[in-house]
Design brief:
Structural class: alpha/beta
Oligomer: single chain
């Protein structure tokens, strides 16, 4: 649409004594003049419902309604206004062209029908209201900056942009758009693709123990692709009860505050690859698609939110409480991945849950055992680490056995000359001690000769009893960890 009609749309936007009257005049004008364009995008039943939602169904049936006369006079006064007819399959992009405009005051497009709305590179200095707006044709908000002016602390809580209840019948484009502290897409409907590539939702700030920044997609519906690649969610973000029927792509996104996907439904391929979560993501009662990707995420960044050695502000000063909440959030993700039989992802979240439990419990025996479990086998996933511990114990205790055998040799026997033989027997005896349940070192066991060779060489054979007892306990535990890691890696059993 030609740029020369922008003034007409701005004048129509301001026409009417009240906001409600102005909305009815706008919608009545669009339905009277561009009914054929509406019919291009919607079937008869959808058109009927649209006109009912816009509140002009009764006015359209009554040509003698006073609003008709007011619109006729308005059109006559303006003279040049957008043409009534276009080609049947014509391009309506920028039919309503507001691109590059600076809006110095609060603007309301709430409840209006927008046809081919183009706001790219526009600037909204104050509040922008699109509640319940119906967008036909592509809605272009690429590179828009909301609230470009500096606002006072008193104004900031009211500084917001709202698309609550808006319906995008075609593509919704918000590439590299910068949103204000408070942004609301709650109950918005995206019937085709929604693109928020590199969109920025600013960081939260706190005053008087209140968080004045939030981004909401609560109860929103995405029927097409939801593209949030490299989007920055600096404030707390809510996707509760949202539905994403096609691909949901959060690759490389940054979540600086809490992020909630409670009861969210992902019905197609979903990607969080290489994303950053500074707080534990919450997926309670969420339904994740089996093709979900959490790879490339540095979860150590997330763990810092409840790590007691990391300084945090007054909102997150209770380590136990936040670690407990994180543990429950990781547990939920672990359960989801287990149901999807994604063993690697399941273990990632199991590992995070166990670490959170350690921070929650503080210094105690269970925390120490938790730490040993991680160090010895990476919580049942590190095959190499478990093997090193198992083999290392055999070698270390074998060398200790040989050392005692050499040191306590009778003076008449040169113990040092027997080290090679003792070393072999020491390692075999260490293996027998570590697997005492096999009976290899008993009187008629296969390795009884190695026991005799080590024990008989020492004048004080009683020293080997405690060593054997330690290995009898430690050996099966380490062997179990080896088998556990192999089983977990290859899903045996």
């Amino acid at each position: 649409m030609a740029k020369e009609h922008t003034e007409f749309w701005l004048a129509l936007l301001e026409f009417g004594g009240t906001e409600e009257e102005g909305r009815q005049l706008w919608n009545l004008y669009c339905c009277l003049q561009y009914d054929h364009i509406i019919a291009r995008f919607l079937d008869a039943e959808q058109v009927r419902k649209l006109k009912s939602r816009l509140g002009v169904a009764d006015h359209l049936r009554n040509p003698h309604h006073p609003l008709h006369g007011r619109l006729k006079k308005f059109s006559g006064d303006k003279g040049r206004h957008p043409p009534k007819s276009t080609e049947p399959a014509g391009d309506i992009r920028a039919f309503m062209d507001f691109s590059g405009i600076r809006f110095p005051i609060g603007m309301s497009f709430a409840g209006r029908l927008m046809i081919g709305a183009d706001f790219h590179e526009s600037r909204f200095s104050r509040q922008a209201d699109f509640d319940g707006t119906e967008f036909l044709g592509p809605a272009n908000f690429n590179h828009v900056k909301f609230h470009t002016d500096q606002v006072s602390m008193a104004e900031t809580p009211q500084s917001k942009v709202s698309f609550s209840g808006a319906t995008f019948h075609n593509d919704a484009l918000f590439r590299e758009t910068r949103f204000p502290y408070n942004t609301d897409f709650g109950t918005a409907v995206f019937r085709q693709d929604a693109e928020f590539f590199r969109a920025t939702f600013p960081s939260r700030f706190v005053r008087h123990d209140r968080n004045y920044a939030a981004t909401s997609f609560k109860l929103s519906q995405f029927s097409g692709r939801a593209d949030f690649r490299k989007a920055v969610f600096g404030s707390d973000t809510v996707f509760d009860n949202a539905k994403m029927k096609e691909t949901a792509n959060f690759t490389g996104a940054f979540f600086g505050g809490t992020v909630r996907f409670h009861n969210c439904r992902f019905w197609s391929t979903t990607s969080f690859r290489d994303s950053t979560f500074q707080m534990t993501p919450e997926f309670f009662e969420a339904e994740l698609h089996e093709d979900v990707d959490f790879s490339g995420i540095d979860w150590t960044v997330t763990e810092k939110s409840y790590h007691p050695s990391i300084p945090r502000d007054e909102l997150v000063n209770d380590v136990s409480m936040h670690a407990n909440h994180a543990m429950r959030a990781w547990e939920r993700l672990e359960l989801i991945m287990s149901r999807r039989e994604k063993s690697a992802d399941r273990h990632d979240f199991f590992r995070l849950k166990m670490r959170a439990q350690r921070w929650r419990d503080g210094s105690c025996l269970l925390s120490f055992l938790n730490w040993l479990f991680e160090q010895s086998s990476d919580y049942g996933w590190g095959v190499g680490r478990a093997l090193c511990c198992w083999v290392g114990q055999l070698l270390a205790m074998g060398v200790i056995l040989v050392g005692f055998a050499v040191i306590c040799c009778p003076d008449e026997e040169p113990g040092w000359s027997r080290i090679p033989d003792l070393l072999m027997h020491g390692l075999l005896l260490s293996f027998a001690n570590s697997h005492s349940f096999l009976g290899l070192g008993s009187g008629d066991g296969w390795l009884s000769g190695s026991r005799d060779a080590i024990v008989s060489s020492c004048a004080e054979a009683g020293v080997f009893g405690p060593i054997g007892l330690v290995q009898a306990v430690l050996g099966p535990v380490l062997l179990f960890l080896v088998l556990l890691t192999v089983r977990n890696r290859f899903r045996l059993g």
